[in-house]
Every structure is written in C-alpha cells, then in structure tokens.
C-alpha cells in the first residue's frame, strides 16, 4: 500500500462516525472500528462478506439504507449518511464508501 493511501486510511479509521467501504460486488473491503463495534463484530468478521452474509453472522437482517440501519441486536436506527464511489487506477468505479451517524 502506498504511503499516501496508508495516511488516508488512517484518517478514515479515526472519523467520528461509522465508515465502511465495499467493492463493486457489494462485499465489505474495509471499515472503521466504530462500525465494527456498532455491529458487535470484529473487523475481520466483516471483510469479504456482503449484507446477506453479515445478516447470517448477526442472526438478524442487516440493512443500511440512506436513512436507516439495523445494528447487531436488530434495532433500527435513524441515520444521516453519505455515500461516494471509489475509483480504481483507470478511473472506473471500483466500489463505494459510506459514512453515517445515528440521529438519536
């Protein structure tokens, strides 16, 4: 990983909110500790899984929409979120990154 990418990742992991990113197939490829704790999982348990597989691990239906998210205990939370595309070296969309905060 390039030095600049490591610095950017370090900043993302420290943001005061919940952050995750996915590849173009909807699999989690990273998250900050706050998001993992929100789900009640270790980051390693999240990586490489899609929403359905996360639901299987949690035993509840995991879903994140633009205004709601289900936590690891199955509780629904109102959220404010922003989602942006992630691009590969050729400028093609390679996935997405999302930041959200709960509004409660």
Overall description:
By secondary structure, this protein is α+β, with helices and mostly antiparallel strands. It has one domain (3-102): 2-Layer Sandwich (Beta-Lactamase), CATH 3.30.450.20. Helix content is 30%, strand content 34%. The chain is built from four helices and five strands. The protein has helices at 3-14, 33-39, 43-46, 51-58, and strands at 18-23, 28-31, 68-70, 76-87, 93-102. It has a five-stranded antiparallel sheet. Strand 4 and strand 5 (93-102) form a beta hairpin. The chain is globular and about 40 Å long. The termini are far apart. The mean pLDDT is 84.
The name of the CATH topology is Beta-Lactamase
Low-confidence segments: none
Task: Tell me which CATH architecture applies here.
Answer: 2-Layer Sandwich
Which homologous superfamily in CATH is the superfamily? PAS domain
Side-by-side strand order of the widest sheet: 2-1-5-4-3
Number of strands: 5
N to C succession of SSEs = HEEHHHEEE
Count of domains: 1
Q: Report the sheet-strand fraction.
A: 25-35%
Radius of gyration: 14 Å
**What composes the largest sheet?**
5 strands, antiparallel
Helix fraction bin: 25-40%
CATH class descriptor: Alpha Beta
Classify the secondary structure makeup into a structural class: alpha+beta
Mean pLDDT: 84
End-to-end separation in angstroms reads 37 Å
General form: globular
Number of H- or I-type helical stretches: 4
